[in-house]
């Protein structure tokens, strides 16, 4: 009898309104803590709104560069002017590096407003970082990148970065910092603060495709760290130029035709190399600039074509280059027939398949085959030189 009364009172107490309210409050508290951790981790990857004072850092950097100049070239004034010159427009740099006396620049350069297009690319379902990744973002420390994807525009750099982010030992900032071409005066402290936090053994990465065609970028990256590993995604320069034009056309439908932009004179067939869509594909010209500061062993060239046909194979090469275990394999990919390129079965922070956003895989406009052939003839000697410099035949006609 006493046992029955005890059970009755205990049961009545357990379902009392007070207990119910306390239980609900406890559940709400758990949810609030969960949301807080998620928010902290996600916000940790966002760029800061303030520019820090980096005068001391710049002074140290200048001292290092002066010593480097004296030791390496005997002309500190020349090297210092190269390394610490004020940033210029990436496409202006490329154009000014050509020997042609009558270069048409501003009127022909329709890509200046497009160089950030990849920054805004979202994955189809608008994925966000998982709670576990968000929590890890709150620990560790921010470091300058040990590896950078420096090019090229419309080569497949966004796909490569997203594929690499699957690797647990790679942490990468999503947006393109454009530090070494546009924001260099902000200083290394500002740059470091853009990076995600990493733990011991993890690699910090970023990608800004315009670095490859920016004249000052090699010296500036060398000044940050001569051990930086550089990755360049290259693609058939003709199809790359068409893709570049297509991206611009999608945002500016009133621009001239691809054919009219390609030639200075259609009758003579003289190619207009002042147009950035053409310039970028002269890979050998830009590579010469990088080899003045970095050995070929620190530069990996990824095939944009093989990144589509064999993503796991190309990712294997990249993981080897970065000194990482081959974790990203065939099991991570499936081919999307609609878009025409591979997608991730399970992207970072998600258990669902993911593809690049709707702006990827655009339908290209119809280009006159004669124009395409003349472009191939124009690029052929540059491609041959590029093959010789890199030791790789990428199979472009």
UniProtKB/TrEMBL annotation:
Disulfide bonds: 343-355
Annotated stretches, region: Disordered: 92-123
Cellular compartment(s): Endomembrane system; Golgi apparatus membrane
Ranges annotated as spanning the membrane: 21-37
EC class of the enzyme, as a word: transferase
Topology in the lipid bilayer: Single-pass type II membrane protein
Organism domain of life: Eukaryota
Sequence positions that bind 3'-phosphoadenylyl sulfate: 154-158, 235, 243, 360-364
Catalytic residues of the enzyme: 154 (for sulfotransferase activity)
Listed Basic and acidic residues bias regions: 101-123
Molecular functions per Gene Ontology: [heparan sulfate]-glucosamine 3-sulfotransferase activity
Pfam families associated with the record: Sulfotransfer_1
Any one annotated GO CC term: Golgi membrane
Keywords on record: Disulfide bond, Glycoprotein, Golgi apparatus, Membrane, Signal-anchor, Transferase, Transmembrane, Transmembrane helix
EC number annotated for this UniProt entry: 2.8.2.-
Gene3D superfamilies membership: P-loop containing nucleotide triphosphate hydrolases
Similarity annotation: Belongs to the sulfotransferase 1 family.
Name assigned to this protein: Sulfotransferase
Organism: Cirrhinus molitorella (mud carp)
